[in-house]
Amino acid sequence: MTTKLPCLLLLAATLALADDTAKGPGAAGKTCPCCREIPGAAFTRESLYQLDARFVDDAGRPFSLGSLRGRPVVLDMFYTTCGYACPVAVTEMLAIQGRLAGAGRARAAFVLVSFDDARDTPAVLAAYRAQRRLDGRWVLLHGDGEAVRELAALLGVKYQRGADGTYAHSNLLTVLNPEGEIVHQRVGLQGGLDETVAALSGAATRASP
Q: Which of 87-93's residues contact partners 24+ apart within 8 Å by CB, and which partners?
């Protein structure tokens, strides 16, 4: 059966070409219904990737959270001018990255989404990447106010901008499996890294090769 399949495909292609030629020069350019692009599988009901909000990365490129599908993810909401909590969270994410091994480390994505849609422009995020020496496995995202609010609501993150431009916010590291489902959340700034690394490593085993 296996050896016959390539021959049958070649025969089908030959017959299709002959049919297009018989119909005239314009026929070959028409799209056959069987050749239309098949959309990817729908996201699961629990997937954050159902969120339709659009973001922009630190290179100024449009970014959809759904493009992370297939990878284990650590996600944190932050802002670049945060004086204490956010730098600590990023340092802990770097520690998590350093503790991953092999394929798990290569597949994992580390995502920072800014609360500060007014000041944390792509250029500011790019400078922050350079300052913290974040490699290509890190994704830094800017979104408008609505996109940030929608994502924060799904994650259970609370935040409020003060009159001085600082933000009071939850400190919550979230691990997503390759389908974008929340599999672990570390609350606060101290401890819990072992559990977070274990959750991320477990999610990595489900990632597509």
A: 88/189, 89/171, 89/173, 89/189, 90/132, 90/134, 92/173, 92/189, 92/193, 93/173
pLDDT at 153: 94
What was the pLDDT predicted at 46?
85
- Placement of tokens 């020496």 in the chain: 133
| Widest Cα–Cα separation across the chain | 74
Q: Positive or negative CA dihedral for 107, 89, 125, 155? A: positive
Separation of CA 69 from chain center:
6
Q: How many domains does the chain have?
A: 2
Asked if the model's pLDDT at residue 44 lies above 70, the reply is yes
pLDDT averaged over every residue in the chain: 81
List of residues 6+ apart from 83 with CB closer than 8 A? 166
Domain-embedded: residue 43: no
In angstroms, rounded to a whole number, what is the distance separating the alpha carbons of residues 14 and 33?
18
Q: If residue 187 lies in a helix (H) or strand (E), which one and from where to where?
A: strand 182-187
> Quick one: which of 160, 162, 194, 158 has its CA closest to 175?
194
Query: Does residue 98 sit in the same domain as residue 181?
Result: yes
pLDDT the model gives residue 36 = 40
With 80 as the cut, is the pLDDT of residue 35 above it? no
Q: How many Cβ atoms sit within 10 Å of the Cβ of residue 147?
A: 20
Residue 82 lies in a domain: yes
For the stretch 152-195, pLDDT in tens is 999 999 999 999 989 999 999 999 999 999 999 999 877 788 99
